[in-house]
Amino acid sequence: MQIETPRKTVPKSEKEVFDFLTDLGNFEKLMPENIDKFELINQDRFLFSLKGMPEIVLERKRQTPHNQIVLGAASEKLPFTLTADIAKINESESEVALSFEGQFNAMMGMMIKKPLTNFMTTLSENLTKI
Predict the structure, then answer these.
(1) How far apart, in whole angstroms, are the C-alpha atoms of residue 20 and residue 26?
(2) What would the pLDDT profile of 53-77 be if each residue is shown by its tens digit?
């Protein structure tokens, strides 16, 4: 399953956006209002849950300075990645596109596609406000 958000313009340089996203504690600021729990485990991992959903632990998988950050599920039970691609527009603006890629069975995919799409949209919208 793959979900991509439209590119959003962020009123920050690509370095500022990259620095914001590489500080995983900042993801709490991007979370939807229905967040139930957020916990920074260490500099490379955080845990969150939304009301009515199980807890998810995301960890930093790789990053390319100022261009891309890839987070992935810490558990092998639900393998997926969340990628932020950052592109420079000018010195004070950048574009960010979020993408989700996961391997789920068809039943699981049907159940999580809508809430996951909403979650990704919220993260993307909230990025424009950092």
Answers:
(1) 6
(2) 889 999 999 999 999 999 999 988 7
